[in-house]
Amino acid sequence: MPRRRRRVEKWLAETSTPVFVLDTDRVVGWFNSGCEQLTGWSAEDVVGWRCDYSSEFAADTVDALVASLCPPPDLALSARQQVPVEVACRDGHPQPRIMHVFPLEDADGQPDGFLGVLLPVPRSDSATLTDSPTHRLHAELAALRIALRQRYGTDTLLGTGPAMTRVLQQVELAVDSLNGVTLIGEPGTGREHAARAIHYAGPNGDHSFIPLHAVTLPTVEQASLIDRMLGPHRSPQTGPDVLQPGTLFLAEIDRLPRDIQQQLLDRLDADPERHPTMRLMASSTISPELAVDSEQLLPELHYRLTAITISLPALRDRPDDFRTLAQHILEQHNKSADFQVGGLTQSTWTTLGQYLWPGNLDELDAVIREAAQAAADRQSPRVDVQDLPFRFRTGLDAQRVGPPLATPLEPLDVVIERVEREHIRRALEQARGNKARAARLLGLTRPKLYRRLQHLDMLDDEVGQAAG
Predict the structure, then answer these.
(1) Quick one: average pLDDT of 85-96?
(2) 15 DSSP 8-state letter
(3) CB 191 within 8 A of CB 183
(4) What residues are paired with 344 via a beta bridge?
């Protein structure tokens, strides 16, 4: 038996068929010559690396390779499986393969890891392939990342719907220039994230990205920050500037005090050669033109900021991207998690799709990460409805109930008549039915009060019939 085992191991090591082994902690323990030929990575480069079920890594790294070899978590306890994968290779070009996964057992019959075999994709669809919507979504996300890296170089901005396609095209234009950029959208739509992506992919990417938050930063600190960045030159004797900004990002520009806006313009105009390549970017919830019209934004600053204007859509307006974004957040969570969660159940997708997401991407990120942790605590490879945070479920219930119904408006004549009737009745009660005294209380003559009583059909009332 030992001699037969050695022959098998020798054949597996020398065969051109790519074969690898993972232990129970998803650490690569074996990577044969066939894998080396397919991927361009040597066994020394790969053995000892842990696989994480994530497509977050750059395409030409060992992280990306071992992630592409990670079996889907919801298949981990199953029998032999065949899973379509995109093997991340050293040259950055993925290779489509069918990964045959064989669970291994030790001498006591306990799980001892996996053996994986990478075979070419058959020309015709195979009915034996595992039909896993979760893994299919994972594979689509990996393919989308590769396409975005090749086309835009900003792989963290995900989206294939019409709205995001336009955004990505505008981002690509912004990356190639130093013109001012304003990003418009609701809070939580990723405006600052997009600004950072433009900055780090552009000519100033090796300099600082300095955010100035009009909402959270006190006015005195805003002024101090501008002074430190755009103040007078320092002499060689006093040393270089502490901050070397490549981009100044003015968050919620329409809420930045006008005196701070003017101070910024004055600093820029006083010494234009101090920061000749510093870029201005801003975010706003309203259009810059509307901010100027409402005197929230100085026209001169508007001109500097709006060479490129990018409108980021709300999450509710991105139905084509929703599942990809949620899976992306989940796999980001997997990067730092011991227990890997592969995806969401269909009932969970349905529940998430019923929510309006007023907090947009920020809220989705918080919900998915908390739900993934809850699933991991249950040792479940998929997020179920019960894992969703309590605040999310109560918010969904509130949206289903909706706001209270508005009270319908009554005709004005009806309201006036009701008020007049009540007012006259109170005067008659105070006057104990004496119409002359009631008229004086109301500031009317007695004949005019009679006419009003007759008009309101109150002469026959008990109060109206009292002593005149």
Answers:
(1) 87
(2) -
(3) yes
(4) 383
- How confident is the model over 280-289, as a mean pLDDT? 93
Distance between CA 340 and CA 336 in Å, rounded? 9
User: Got the DSSP string for 88-156?
Assistant: --TTS--EEEEEEEEEEE-TTS-EEEEEEEEEPPPSSPPTTS---HHHHHHHHHHHHHHHHHHHTS-TT
Q: Which H or E element spans position 265? A: helix 258-270
Bridge partners (DSSP) of residue 279 are 247
Which pLDDT tens digit goes with each residue over 121-154? 876 544 455 556 666 677 666 665 555 444 434 5
CATH of 412-455, one of 1.10.10.60, 2.60.40.10, 3.40.50.300, 3.40.50.720: 1.10.10.60
Going by their DSSP bridges, the two strands 95-105 and 111-119 should be labelled as antiparallel
Q: Which CATH number fits domain 161-233+243-312: 3.40.50.300, 3.20.20.60, 2.40.160.40, 3.65.10.10?
A: 3.40.50.300
Instruction: Return the CATH fold of 12-150.
Output: Beta-Lactamase (3.30.450)
Paired tokens of 184 = 């418009």
Tokens encoding 90:
């050293």
User: Which letter does DSSP use for residue 335 in this model?
Assistant: T
Q: What is the DSSP string of 203-215?
A: TTTTSEEEEEETT
Distance from C-alpha of 232 to C-alpha of 226, rounded to nearest angstrom: 11
pLDDT on residue 242? 41
**CATH (residue range 321-401):** 1.10.8.60
Q: What is the pLDDT of residue 385?
A: 94
Please give the pLDDT value at position 276.
Answer: 66
| Cα–Cα distances in angstroms (integers) from residue 197 to residues 70, 152, 446, in the given order | 29, 10, 81
Q: Give pLDDT, residue 409.
A: 79
Q: What tens digit of pLDDT does each residue of 202-237 get?
A: 888 777 788 888 777 666 666 676 776 665 544 444
| Dihedral pair phi/psi, residue 236, rounded to 5° | -55, -30
Question: Using CA atoms, how far apart are residues 342 and 103, in angstroms rounded to an integer?
Answer: 18
> What pLDDT was estimated at residue 209?
83
Confidence of residue 337 (pLDDT cuts 50, 70, 90): confident
| Whole-number Cα distances in Å, 232 to 225, 243, 263, 264, 301 | 13, 13, 14, 13, 21
DSSP designation for 50: B
**Cα distance from N-terminal residue to C-terminal residue, the chain:** 124
User: To the nearest whole percent, how much of the chain has pLDDT over 90?
Assistant: 36
How far is the C-alpha of 206 from the C-alpha of 215, rounded, in Å?
Answer: 27
